[in-house]
Amino acid sequence: MDSSQAQTIDQENPRKWTRFFLNIPGLIALTFLVIGITLHNGEGKKVVEAFRTMDPRWISLAFFFQLCTYICSACVWRWTMHHLDLRLSIRSMMKLGVKKLFVDQVIPTGGVGGTVLITRSLLKQNIPPAKATTGVLANFYSYYAAYTLAVMASLGILWTHSSMSSLVQKIAFFFLCIVCLILFTAWAVTRPTDNLWKRNLERFSIIKKLLAVLNTASPKQAVHPKILIPNIFFQMGVFIFDTATLTIILHALGYDAFLPMLFASFMMSYVVETLGPIPGGLGIFESSSVAMLTLAHIPISTALVATLILRGFTFWLPMIPGVILMRKDY
Fold first, then answer.
1. What are phi and psi of 203, to 5 degrees?
2. pLDDT digit string (tens) for 29-53?
3. Around Cβ 110, how many Cβ atoms within 10 Å?
4. Which of 36, 129, 164, 307 is deepest in the core (most CB within 10 A)?
5. Comparing 324 with 329, which gets the higher pLDDT?
6. What does the alpha-carbon distance between residue 59 and residue 42 come to, in Å, rounded to a whole number?
7. What is the reported pTM?
8. Helix H segments across 107-224?
């Protein structure tokens, strides 16, 4: 990647963020529509009662678990850069993770927007382009490897507890097909030789921008076992701590569900969010989470309250530092 390419990456149009925030009222309206559909047969009173009887002392532990998710994400970058002979602080990597989360949530590009942002931020820290892009590729592969393993484990849990519906099977199958396509695309576009797949993908502006980012990466180094395997564990830690956050929220609401079922419920809701076209899966995640939690024998009112609080931690709360950090960049 030469200086002109780095400059192109740096010149993202800030109006994208303006357009997103103008769409927030519509997304919030969609969320309330889902809530309205969910609240029936007197469930509204039960929701209010669940909020009223919630033990707030457990929420501080939920904050801690969410902090652990950012530490795990930062460890992925720090471990990768350590094996690329670079020393970066956990704090700087956590800031990077918050910005990537913000971009991936507001623009549904399958993580490409966040990948471009991460590369640009690493280049700003005077990291050699080849090492920066290799680190990005290592993060990419470890994320999808951990994601796939978590989904497969969730399917096993649901099957064991006779909660594997045909709809869940179809969603999981579609997700796995998409992951295979994404990984094949990443393999094709990072090959040093030209190929038909790469030429066809370059017609899409977002892929062309991604190619400009990754053209100096070392795919073999990115998937080296010493880098890939520990990073998969760190990425799995994010999913586990998110599930732990949900568990604590339910405990604060007076319910102690079977932990593996909560993990499966969270992961399948996350899959539906990933496949959805709406930024951050707003409204889509909430409805699927309530539906999945009922499979774990959680009352619908409690499932809704727990989901809304969880989304406050995982979606809305990171928006605040995300906006602040992005304003410094733009």
1. -70, -25
2. 456 655 665 555 555 666 667 777 7
3. 15
4. 307
5. 324
6. 27
7. 0.82
8. 112-124, 129-160, 166-189, 196-201, 205-214, 219-222
